[in-house]
Write a structure and sequence with these properties.
The chain is of the alpha/beta class. The chain folds into two domains: 11-62, Spermidine synthase, tetramerisation domain (Spermidine Synthase, Chain: A, domain 2); 67-294, 3-Layer(aba) Sandwich (Rossmann fold), CATH 3.40.50.150. Helix content is 28%, strand content 31%. It contains ten helices and twelve strands. The strands form two sheets. A seven-stranded mixed beta sheet has the order 8-7-6-9-10-12-11. The protein has a five-stranded antiparallel beta sheet with strand order 1-2-3-4-5. It is globular. Mean pLDDT is 95; it is low at 1-6.
């Protein structure tokens, strides 16, 4: 059956995934378009997806489905740990990753490190639906500095670290935050039963190579490494994450144990994560397992270079 096509009027915003593929979004309204010290930051209102954040012309999250990214980013690691009290978030400028951490009544200290103070200020102003006041929570400490520098200052301190950093583009602020040396610093900053979760890039068959390299690199540092994924509607892609742990295995939990932790910690309002999706996310397909097996370890000397 032939599909009908028409050209949409108004402003169009295109994101390049690879040289072969672009995704185009129709813009209803522009709230903020600025160049910070580190990156281009655009906050726009999209038709269909609602308000959205783009960094260096790549979508980070949209109001319609931000929970489809932020809950998987945070909750598998938080619920894998039996008692997360001290948590660090690296990146996460919108404040939604921090929001997900603070859902847990076990959390006594939440440190968020984002190098881009201008970006965070924009998000505070224009994206309250994301942070929902989390920046003002008394448990929160907000630091504007290099995550690698800050994490290196801690030893055996955090129960959970969430790495919600932008992709390691060569000209971007995050390229050296996906290497074996960086993950060793993270390992050292975690407690003896600490857990790390990492946003790890696209999981589609076209360009899943960052995802594979992150998994392989973490396997050099942590004894328990579990890749997982989910589909994020506004990305138009399946998205990869990795859980790395010194001790606790997310697949050793039972659905009943997860349900009990959700209840005991007073976590309410989840729209994506629950005791059943927890296990479904860790069921990655054979093509991704093959990518991981063939991937290389990222180092400071040879970091990831986006070549698509």
């Amino acid at each position: 059956m032939a599909a009908a096509h028409h050209v949409c009027g108004g402003l169009l915003l295109s994101e390049t995934h690879t040289d072969a593929v672009m995704y185009t979004y129709r813009v209803k309204n522009v709230m903020q378009m600025a160049r910070t010290k580190f990156q281009d930051a655009w906050i726009v209102d999209l038709y269909g997806y609602g308000k959205a954040l783009f960094l260096d012309k790549k979508i980070q999250s949209a109001l319609l489905d931000e929970y489809m990214f932020h809950e998987p980013m945070v909750q598998p690691g938080m619920f894998t740990h039996p008692n997360p009290q001290r948590v660090l978030v690296a990146g996460g400028g919108e404040g939604a990753t921090l929001r997900e951490v603070l859902r847990h009544n076990t959390v006594k200290e939440a440190v968020m490190v984002d190098i881009d103070d201008e970006l965070v200020a924009f998000c505070k102003q224009w994206m309250p639906e994301w942070h929902q006041g989390s920046f003002d929570d008394p448990r929160t400490t907000l630091i504007h500095d290099d995550a690698r520098k800050i994490i290196a200052q801690y030893r055996n301190h955090f129960d959970v670290i969430v790495s919600d950093l932008t992709d390691p583009l060569e000209a971007g602020p995050s390229q050296m935050l996906f290497t074996k040396e960086f993950y060793q610093l993270v390992y050292d900053a975690l407690t003896d039963d600490g857990v790390l979760t990492v946003q790890s890039g696209a999981g589609d068959p076209l360009y899943p190579y960052l995802y594979g390299c992150i998994v392989r690199t973490l396997q050099e540092v942590f004894p328990v490494v579990r890749p997982y994924w989910c589909f994020v509607a506004s990305f138009m892609l399946p998205w990869g994450f990795v859980l790395a742990s010194k001790k606790h295995d997310p697949l050793a939990l039972t659905a009943e144990a997860i349900a009990q932790r959700i209840e005991e910690r007073g976590v309410k309002g989840l729209r994506y994560y629950d005791p059943f999706t927890h296990f479904g996310m860790f069921a990655i397909p054979p093509y991704l397992r093959e990518v991981i097996a063939q991937a290389r370890v990222l180092t400071d000397a040879e970091p990831f270079n986006w070549e698509a």
